[in-house]
Design brief:
Immunoglobulin-like, 62 strands, DUF11 domain-containing protein, DUF11_rpt
Length: 820
């Protein structure tokens, strides 16, 4: 069924994606401009925002919107939209005729409604109305471009050398705003291929005003100062340089012809923008029309930034919220108070202000400050109107639930089954074609490996070595993305595959255990010269690296090693052979070797590293020689590793779960020894292990809304994180003792499932008793018998002691207040 799209829902895209990259709020004093929210207006949050037509040949990591026709064949859209991106939010808009798309998150407006493969799950689909008024949006953007283009320069442009290349060096010292106005001769130098060096403080907004009606930008970009320069890439541009904008106020055409990734947002609202060559772009593209066969990477201009002469928005309210917790590391059963403060930073009164806190499952509600009320774990505070500059604060008190599994093991010999699996896709490449391939595990499962295997190139048109792999990396905990290019004169065939781990073990004894990976990816980036270079990443204690990946800025390098050793299991080392200088980023995800605790116990994953040295003949077959590495009988291969000597190359490997088949090619003419190996995950976990040494991270997000117009929807949420410690207690009473008739009720939290006895004491006298069925890591309400006489004593006392005696674990006494 089509989704009905409202103006409010359209604005939700700004809230969903504007803070994704870059510094979402100004963090320094705006000394040479004006702090402005959503300077790009309706273009805020869109990686490609085009008034007219577009022709695209590769993916966009963010959302895209076109007011005209759009030509694309199976274009992937939205791979970097946040995990919480609403299913009904627009992520793809084409007002004219359209191509075909793989939309990773969100919904689409197309007419007719066809050509979209929705990968975002339930609730996604076609929008019934166009959520964007392109004419109004580009009226604002043209005015903005002219205003910024007229701003006075605050930085200097001079001749210099960056990375050994002649360059225009742009130097600015402001931590908030740097403006550079290029001369016609400066623009001509860039058109001729002159490199550009940018030396400004990280986090500052940087506007590069480029003159001329038909400018071309060539060369490469570098960041640094003096004699220390690094080539611009995703890792050093995203976040710290989200505010970098190339402004073309006079241009009718803009051509980018870059030898590496092109950094920064392109603001060219009157121009036909063409990316003739580039590794990819790293920023937004705002244009009259857009043609590119390269990826556009998500790097959004900050939602609040210091800019020159932004359009004013008088008389608009802007509510924002902050949140904090009274304790960052409470023990299970301890009380925590969240403080929430809503502020109107706009210049008009905000009406109908509501603070909302959806409490996470790992805490139990105790109380909230008036007028806040709680229902079903959701706290709502209707605070009414807030004058410009006014604030209101409210507190919410909760109990941190004891950690499930913080007790003794019930069956020390029990184990659980694990079943890895694989997914693959055939890749056909025309001569000269570059493709981005994305594969995903089942929802919630974890990626452990992902690679290409090159199979064939048409006879007489080249060799397998003419097929170049530019990227193969984990795109999320459960997905993989790779970039492959065919430099042969004929067609090429390859295969992309991934190996996946289940999110949970198989059930045993009526329960399962969850696997987990660290949310953060370990990564390293650098510039590497000709020859062989190595780089390493290291996972934290208690984890091992999986899903090793890499990104190369050009095809002048290839991976010669991807390896770790059993003696240093947390370290993963990459080796590349380069024929020209290259920028590379290496990464891995970190799999926790202990499954999550349930029912008082955990298990260890069992991993075996099978290492094999093979002799690669001096003369190998045209498509390489195959070498197999096989896991033990009770294990499956989950990560392939290798270490090749100079002159030996890999064309990929074929996952057969039990084994890996590596294809190697030797061009030295002499037999060479190479290492091919496989990390194997055993079919069963280790036996039960008592207790849980691992704390639990609990993230609590609060939001604020108003019925009045809100200038910036990106600052309406805030979170507070607590890390609950296992502690010594296995049970705790929580909240209040509530009296109703002849019964008293109290919530009991436990780290173990089982049974327990509950007593209520006033002083030394026991006034109520009962039994309780305990649930691991959750609350259960205990109902206790209470006589009329004792009921009066309890009510008069105001505070009582609740004693919980579990079948397993020690007895715990907690003081709680009484409520009728």
């Amino acid at each position: 069924m089509p989704i009905i799209m409202s103006v409010v829902a359209s604005a939700a895209l700004v809230a969903a994606v504007a803070p994704l990259n870059g510094r979402a709020d100004a963090t320094t004093t705006c000394t040479s401009g004006v702090t402005t929210s959503n300077a790009f207006g309706a273009a805020t949050g869109w990686t490609e925002f085009v008034e007219g037509n577009g022709t695209r040949g590769s993916e966009s990591e963010g959302a895209i919107a076109y007011g005209g026709n759009h030509t694309a064949g199976g274009m992937t859209v939205g791979t970097r939209l946040p995990s919480g991106f609403a299913a009904s939010s627009p992520a793809l808009v084409v007002a004219g005729t359209q191509g075909s798309y793989n939309l990773q998150k969100g919904s689409a407006y197309l007419s007719p409604e066809s050509g979209v493969n929705f990968n975002g799950g339930s609730g996604t689909g076609y929008l019934t109305g166009n959520p964007i008024d392109f004419a109004t949006a580009f009226g604002h953007l043209r005015t903005l471009s002219i205003q910024w283009g007229a701003a006075a320069a605050t930085g200097t442009v001079s001749a210099g050398v960056t990375g050994g290349n002649n360059a225009l060096v742009l130097s600015g010292s402001s931590a908030s705003l740097n403006v550079f106005n290029l001369s016609t001769s400066d623009a001509a130098a860039l058109a001729s291929g002159r490199h550009l060096g940018l030396s400004v403080p990280a986090g500052s907004v940087t506007i590069i005003n480029v003159p001329g009606a038909t400018p071309t930008i060539g060369g490469q970009a570098w960041l640094g100062s003096g004699s220390s320069w690094g080539q611009a890439n995703d890792n050093n541009i995203k976040d710290d340089y989200a505010g970098l904008v190339w402004n073309f106020p006079q241009a009718s055409t803009v051509t980018v012809s870059y030898g590496s990734a092109f950094p920064g947002t392109i603001l060219a609202p009157n121009a036909a923008v063409t990316i003739a060559s580039a590794g990819h772009t790293i920023g937004q593209v705002v244009a009259q029309s857009f043609v590119s066969g390269f990826e556009t990477h998500q790097n959004l201009f900050p939602g609040e930034a210091c800019v020159p002469s932004p359009p004013s928005t008088p008389g608009t309210s802007d509510v924002t919220i902050t949140k904090s917790a009274s304790s960052a590391t409470p023990s299970g059963g301890a009380t925590v108070t969240y403080a929430l403060t809503a502020t109107n930073i706009g210049n008009a009164t905000a009406t109908g202000v509501v603070i909302r806190d959806d409490l996470p499952a790992d805490v139990t509600f105790v109380s909230a400050q008036s007028p806040c009320t709680q229902s079903g774990g959701v706290v709502a505070c209707n605070v009414g109107s807030l004058a410009a500059g006014a604030s209101v604060s409210k507190t919410i008190t909760v109990t941190a639930n004891p950690i499930a599994g913080a007790g003794a093991s019930s069956d020390p010999q029990a184990t659980h089954w694990l079943t890895p699996y694989k997914a693959e896709a055939q890749v056909d490449l025309e001569a000269g074609q570059q493709r981005t391939i994305a594969l995903s595990c089942h929802s919630g499962d974890y990626l452990s490996d992902g690679q290409f295997r090159v199979d064939h190139v048409d006879q007489g048109t080249g060799t397998i070595r003419d097929v170049k792999i530019l990227s193969a990396r984990s795109d999320s905990a459960s997905s993989w993305k790779g970039v492959i290019r065919n430099d042969a004169a004929g067609r090429a065939q390859a295969k992309a595959f991934i190996v996946c781990l289940p999110k949970q073990t198989e059930a045993n004894g009526g329960h399962r255990h969850s696997l987990s990976v660290d949310t953060a990816v370990v990564t390293t980036s650098g510039s590497y010269g000709v020859g062989r270079s190595t780089a390493s990443v290291t996972c934290p204690a208690g984890t091992v690296p999986v899903a090793p990946g890499y990104d190369l800025s050009s095809a002048s390098a290839e991976l010669a090693g991807s390896e770790h050793t059993s003696s240093v299991p947390r370290k993963w080392t990459f080796t590349i052979d380069a024929t020209a200088p290259v920028t590379a980023t290496f990464s891995a995800r970190c799999l926790r070797t202990t499954v999550d605790p349930v029912n008082g116990h955990t298990h260890e994953l069992k991993l075996t590293h099978v290492v094999q040295t093979v002799s690669v003949p001096g003369t190998t077959a045209a498509e390489g020689n195959e070498f197999q590495v096989i896991c033990p009988d009770d294990a499956k291969g989950v990560v392939a590793t290798f270490d090749l000597p100079p002159g030996v190359h890999t064309f990929g490997n074929d996952p057969r779960l039990k084994a890996r088949a590596f294809r190697l090619f030797n061009d030295t003419g002499i037999a060479q020894n190479a290492t091919v190996d496989l990390v194997c995950l055993h079919d069963r976990t280790g036996t039960e292990r008592s207790g849980s040494p691992s704390p639990v991270e609990v993230v609590n997000v609060a939001t604020v809304t108003s019925t009045s117009a809100d200038a910036n929807a990106t600052n309406n949420a805030a979170s507070a994180t607590i890390t609950v410690q296992p502690g010594g207690a296995t049970v705790a009473a929580s909240g209040f003792l509530r009296i109703k008739g002849s019964k008293a009720k109290v919530a009991v939290l436990s780290s173990l499932k089982g049974k327990g006895h509950v007593k209520v004491k006033v002083g030394k006298k026991v006034v109520a008793t009962g039994k309780v069925k305990l649930r691991a890591g959750k609350a259960t309400v205990a109902t206790l018998k209470l006589s009329k006489k004792d009921k009066r004593k309890v009510a008069e006392a105001g505070t009582v002691r609740v004693v919980v005696d579990p079948a397993r674990g020690r007895t715990i006494t907690t003081k709680v207040k009484v409520r009728r």
